[in-house]
Amino acid sequence: MMQKLLINNNILKFKEDIEGLSKQRISNCYQCGKCTAGCPVAFAMDYPPNQVIRMIQLGLRNEVMSSHAIWFCASCETCTTRCPREIDLARIMDSLRIIAQAENKVSVREVPILNQIFLKSIELTGRVYEVGVIGAYNFFSLNPFKDIPLGIKMFLKGKLNLMPHSAGNFRGLFKRIREKSCDRN
Ligand code: SF4
Ligand code: SF4
């Protein structure tokens, strides 16, 4: 009996954690599958979006947190738009990524690496500095020489600028965002 109560508490705790962070009622999902039918990357996910929701309902914390699906999600919000129960699934995916990072359980580490580098490029130059982003991404994902042959070809055809072009200074904006997220925490 005690063990059953403990299991029930764990299930509720996981669902409540995600509901608290995402501000979504996960219990409202009735598994119609419309989110998955419209998701452009469901074919590549280990668990499609409706199954991720069902797993949260069932309290399968380890399975959800170690899934590739939460990192393959492109935040396109198609699922959110299609859901007849008005569940913002894109926001739930976001919350799952936040928790996975906080708990150091990132199953597809290339995604947060690219996110960080992409944002740094925007902060420093106001746009995507392609050579810097690809070079840093390959370096930090432990594949430093991966795109060198292609990069040389593109450079010789004049399709690659080695120097970044600045589109403005966004450091102030990023600083304010960081301060706001610190205030919220
Ligand atoms: S569309 Fe909404 S109700 Fe239907 S399975 Fe997806 S999350 Fe659940
Ligand atoms: S937000 Fe994510 S889960 Fe939803 S449809 Fe887009 S890629 Fe799929």
TrEMBL record:
A single MF term (Gene Ontology): oxidoreductase activity
Entry keywords, A to Z: 4Fe-4S, Iron, Iron-sulfur, Metal-binding, Oxidoreductase
Keyword Zinc: no
Domain of life: Bacteria
GO CC annotation: plasma membrane
Domain 4Fe-4S ferredoxin-type: 19-50
Name assigned to this protein: Heterodisulfide reductase subunit C
